[in-house]
Amino acid sequence: MSRFDISARTVLFAALIAALPALAQSAEVKREVVGNRTSENIPAIPAELLEQLNRYQNTRGAGLAGWTKDGCLLISTRFAETAQAHRVCQPLGMREQLTFYPEPVGGITPAPANAWRDGFVFAKDKGGDEFSQLYWFDGPTRSVHLLTDGKRSQNGGTTLNRDGKLMAYSSTARNGTDRDVWLRNTQSGETKLLVDAGGNWTPLDFSPDGSRLLVMKYVSAAESYPGVVDVATGRLELFPVDGGKASFGGFAFAPDGKAVYFISNEPLQGKPQEFKTLRYHDPVSGRFEVLSARIPWDVGGVTLADDGKHLAFVSNEDGISKLRVLSLPGHKEIRLPELPIGVIGGLSFSPDGKRLALTLNSATSASDVHVIDLAAATLTRWTQSEVGGLDASTFIAPTLVRYPTFDKVDGVQRTIPAFYYKPAKPSKTGKYPVVINIHGGPEGQSLPTFSSNAQYLANELGVAMLVPNVRGSTGYGKTWLSLDNAEKREDSVKDIGALLDWIAKQPELDASRVGVIGGSYGGYMVLSSLMHYSDRIRAGVDVVGISHFGTFLKNTESYRRDLRRAEYGDERDPAMNAVFERISPLNNAHKIKSPLFVAQGRNDPRVPWTEAEQIVKAVRGNGQPVWYLLYADEGHGFAKKANSDWFGAATILFWQQHLLND
């Protein structure tokens, strides 16, 4: 849905086109401007393709936001163009839509059950620019009020105390670079700066009496610093970090307000730890426990019931989520119903503490909200999202494979995990074409979640998909996470080369027809893979990808720059800058010999649109065909359904013309 009238769009795109590089406006480039969409060299999408894709593109999911004080659930789902806040008050009951905006709504935080007012806080940006402002949705009146400055600031991480009188949140309002912690009195509306220590700070949990606030400074996926703030005085006390540097996850006060539960990979008894474990510490008594010691995987989050009787956490075990609930204060694991194999998110205990709501997603089922009755150990489905009228029993579940890569560990070949979506029907040619889908981050992790794109490729086109977790991905330990840092960046690209080798050895896969797709850092991986392996990759799709690390770090929003330097390296260091100049796809565009499709959001604050512009120009300079898609009303990815659908159809057309052709 456009927020501009026709005349305004005309002015906007006249300016936009004028800003495009001269080469992109040459006679060889066929440009089309439709509303907020500018496309170059993308052929008309056949009506029959759009019709065939229609059902796959009309799948949807529902994600849990939390409970309301009257026992209903707040969820996020999409019925029109964007995801909005809805309320569901009984299992499989009516989904009542509460917000109606052309932009997606996120960060939905319900008022606690004992709050002085009923409603929820939500976040909303403009056109994907990620300068999200916070709003209050008032339950009784259904009115909406702006809570933050409404300017070019980024606000989020909302945390409310038990009576809802205090609201803590992160904001870049002070200087546009540092993410500080702010405190708002929700009754008077008074707002004050609480933590301005520099860097990226987030509020985590108020003490039961509201006098203290747990906070965390995030430096990188491998380095965080937790602390506690006196709400009245603003005095910040950092907790000691064993080993000096560690990664932390959730932090929450125990029901007594003295002890804490937290997730960390700090050394234990002087022994380094690969994975983040759930821990309990009472500084008064000195009692310390590692509650997930027997789980050799990362723990991803911790949630406590308001009545103080239970705690829930999820472990990430080779990409599969495992839920555990402990009774308090004894930390004894309770019996739970059997859950579907998949990915769990959004844990929230009911106001009375007797039920636990969660989001479940699997490779063959979109996200939906379920509720566990703790006493009865039963699971009840509360939402059932549509899958476009498709027969879900035909959906393909991936298998987990591991393939050898180029290096060894203690003399043994290192292996890379990957999820493999294999079509059920025999290939008409005897071998399946392959699309390699690379996640972003780079500190991300590909999980076996529902993908209508993977299902379409497998069931309709007979294309296999491989989704690897190359080195540098989260979920596989501290060492794995660091294997691609700074000057080791291209080692992760070599993992893609090793995957190409593995594909060539699989009798059912066609090594002569391999495509690669990825977004953000995954977009860089696409470009770099094409740079190194154009002779073995037929085509690539780069979505909001990095094309040169130096220009990326220069032009990304200032509040992200130091965060990214911690991962990629500091371009101000001559030695690191030399690495960037050597490995960046922009400087090696002449090596890209495969057809390329580049897609970008004009308002992207993370990877600026200039990264797309410059690689399009450079690869076209080689005489290589490049499709280019730019949305003026999107940012780091495509959040609006019409935009996402058109991009999806164009991508399938690209695969048909450049991957599946003889």
UniProtKB/TrEMBL annotation:
The keyword Signal applies. Residues 449-659 form the Peptidase S9 prolyl oligopeptidase catalytic domain. Residues 1-24 form the signal peptide. One of its GO terms (biological process) is proteolysis. This is S9 family peptidase. Pfam families: PD40, Peptidase_S9. The keyword Protease applies. GO terms for molecular function: serine-type endopeptidase activity. It comes from the Bacteria. It comes from Thermomonas carbonis. Transmembrane segments: none annotated. Keywords: Hydrolase, Protease, Serine protease, Signal. InterPro entries: 6-blade_b-propeller_TolB-like, AB_hydrolase_fold, Peptidase_S9_cat, Peptidase_S9A, WD40.
